[in-house]
Design goal:
BirA Bifunctional Protein, domain 2; SH3 type barrels; 7 helices; 12 strands; about 25% helix; binds biotin
Length: about 260
Amino acid sequence: MYSKEELLSGLKTSVVGKKIFVFESIDSTNTCAKTLAESAVEEGSVVFSEYQTDGRGRFGRSWLSEPGQNLLFSAILRPPLQQEQAGLLTFYAAVSVVRALEGFTQLQLECKWPNDVLIGGKKCCGILLENSFSNNRLEHSVVGVGVNVNQNAFPDNGLSNATSLARELEKKIDRKKLFQHILRELDLLYDDVQHGNFSRILQEWNMRCNMFGRKVQILREGATTNGKALGLHVDGGLVVETSGGREIVYAGDVTVLS
Ligand code: BTN
């Protein structure tokens, strides 16, 4: 298990990772980070754990991860954003992770709407953003990141085809170095976020998304919608051309059909 000192040693960031809380096991780093955020903990604080007993994904799904093999952490941020822009934080997190993973592994990664990072169509990272608002303004955001790093086997949950960096590269990865790399990228792009400037982030995200112009199927609350994915709406929603006209989708699982 890494100590707080190890994770902090050599880390050069100005906001993200200023403080790190390290656990061997915890229910969920997002749950812990939310509690800390509500108790006014310093912005940029990060909760890191080697294992989660109740790791959470989107739509209340479980996020399963073998102990000591992967990266599981949540960062607490308080950028001065209006509610309409807060959904864009998911793209900020995805682009930061992708930049770090690509730089570290030389693998080519893809972004899948809204918040997955894939290698060759298989999921290697999930992001869970939990925002809290007051009067239409963002109070705090918990950016939860789970990266499959050294785990080799993944239970087939029928939903996602998962992989890890080690599986793709056929070698073990230094998790501490990778963790610091991700925090550095989060920190580098954070200046743009604080100024509400998401253009570079969205441009990089769009570059790595191969869904636009293609036929997709969206599964939402048991209902399916078919259409053509056109691009991102200004608030991060997915614009889809359906038989009934244009729709902006805010939640759901997307499959590219052709
Ligand atoms: C998803 O793909 O549905 C999002 C998965 C997010 C998992 C990470 S692991 C660290 C953090 N703590 C959690 O409970 N969830 C996020």
